[in-house]
Amino acid sequence: MRKYHKKNECRICSSQDLKLILDLGKQPLANAFIKKENLQKYENKFPLRLYLCKNCFLLQLLDIVDKEFLFKEYLYLTSASKPILNHFQKYASEIYNEFLKEIKKPFVIEIGSNDGSLLKEFKKLGTDVLGIEPAKNIAKMANDIGIPTKSNFLNQNIIKKNSLEKKASIVVANNVFGHIEDLKEFMKCIKLLLKNKGIFVFEVPYLIDLIQKLEFDTVYHEHLSYFSLRPLMKLMNEFNLEIFDVKKQKVHGGTIRVFVAEKDNFEITKDLKELIKYEEKFGIYKIKTYEKFSDNVKQLRSELQDKLSKFKKEGKIIFGYGAPAKGNVLLNYCKIGTQFLDYILDTTPLKHGLYTPGMHIQVRSDITHQELSSQQIALLLAWNYEEEIIKKENEFMKKGGKFLVPIPIPRLI
Ligand code: TMP
User: Fold this and answer.
1) Exposed, middle or buried, 281 (CB in 10 Å: 0-12/13-18/19+)?
2) Which domains does the chain have, with CATH numbers?
3) Does 320 contact ligand 1 (Cβ within 6 A)?
4) Could you tell me the distance, in angstroms and rounded to a whole number, from the CA of residue 65 to the centre of ligand 1?
C-alpha cells in the first residue's frame, strides 16, 4: 500500500514556484499514539516541511501522507475539550440566529463532524442534521448519540452513492478545509450539497496567528494548508463563489470563521474588508515574513531545550500537560523525550495508557494525578487552553507547581 507521495505544485494555483520555509524533520503522525506492546515495532515517519507558494501565497505541505492511512482510526475527540464544546454551543446559536431562524425546516450538513458535538447543538435548536465523518470509530460515537453520520471521505461519488439529495441551508466544516488535498473536488461537493443561496461556513486556524505566535507545532501531516484570505478568495472565485464575511475566533490558537456563498448574494462585510487590509499591513504576502518566522522557530527550540536541561539539573520533576497532536510535533522537533518528561496528563480517555508517537512518553489520566509538589513543572503542550487549564489547576499552582508555556517564547508561570 502506498502511504506517502510528494507533490510539486501548489494546491490552489498549480504554480511550481514553491519555497521551502521550515523543515521540521521526519516525524511520525502526530496522532499516532502507540500501545505499550507496539513500542518496539517500526514506526512510520514522513518528512514534515512547510512550503510557500510564491504565486498565490498559500503556505502548505507538499509531503502528503495518504488520507486512508491518516484518518482511519482517529483519537481526536471534540468532546474531550470543554472550551471547544462551549465554542460550538455559541457557534450553532450564532449561525442559527443569523441565517436559519426564518427558514421553515433548516438542514445543516457538517463535513468532518467528529463525534457530533457541533451538530448536537444545531439539533437542539430544531435543525435537521447530517454528519459526514471518515473516522469509523468516531462516526459510530456520533450515531450512538443520535446524530446521523455517514462514515466516508467526502467526494462526488459518495454524494451519489448515499443519495444525499436533500440540500442543506448551511454546510459547515471546522478544522477540515486545511486537511483536504484536493480542494477543487471538495468545493464541487460543497456546491452539490448546498441549496440555492445556501452558505458554506468553515473555520480554519488563521495563518497570521500561526506566524505571529510562532505556533509551528500546529504544522503536522494532517494539516495540508495554512490559510490567509487571498488564496481562499482565489479558490472560491474559481467556483463562482465569494467570501462575504469573516469572523475571528479564539479557538485553536486563533481561527477564522469564513462565510461563503454564490457571488452577489450577500453584502461584503466591514469585518472582511478590514481583515484584508490588515493582512497586507502585517506582511503576510511578503516572503521575508516567513523567513523571519523560520529563524524564530529555530531559536525557540534551543531556548526550550536549554530551559528543560536547567530544570532537570535543578532536580525538578517535569511532566507534559495535555497530549494534543501539536504537542507531539513540538516534542519530536525539539527532541524532548523521557530524558525530560516523566509522563503526560490528558483528559481524553482514548489516549490513556498509550505512548506518544516518536518520543514514547506515557499518557496518563489527569484524574489520577495526585502527587503534587513544589518541585513540579508542567510543560503546557495544550497551550491553546492556557487560561482554562491554569484556572482548573490552581491547587497545583498554590502548592508551588509551575507551568512552562512553550510558545511564542518559553516562559514560566
Ligand atoms: P486540541 O488542542 O487539539 O483541542 O487538544 C487538546 C488536548 O488537550 C486534548 O487531548 C485534550 C487535552 N486537554 C487536557 O488534557 N486538559 C484540559 O483541561 C484541556 C482543555 C484539554
Assistant:
1) exposed
2) 309-412 (3.40.50.720)
3) no
4) 24
Identity at 330, one-letter amino acid code? L
Question: pLDDT-based confidence at 390, cuts 50/70/90?
Answer: very high
* DSSP line for 369-407: -----TTEEEEES-GGGHHHHHHHTHHHHHTT-EEEE-S
Confidence at 369, pLDDT banded by 50, 70, 90: low
Distance CA 110, CA 127 (A): 12
What kind and span of H or E run contains 313?
A: helix 287-313
Could you identify the residue written with the cell 498565490?
56
Q: The pTM is what?
A: 0.93
Amino acid at 413: I
Q: Is 347 in the pocket of ligand 1 (CB under 6 A)?
A: yes
SS3 27: strand
pLDDT digits (tens, 9 = 90+) for 340-353: 999 999 998 889 99
384 lines ligand 1 (CB under 6 A): yes
Distance CA 247, CA 378 (A): 33
Contact between 189 and 142 (Cβ < 8 Å): no
When computed from its CA atoms, the radius of gyration of the chain, rounded to whole angstroms, is 21
- C-alpha 150: how far from its chain's center? 21
For all residues of the chain together, what is the average pLDDT?
94
Q: Which three cell numbers stand for residue 21?
A: 520555509
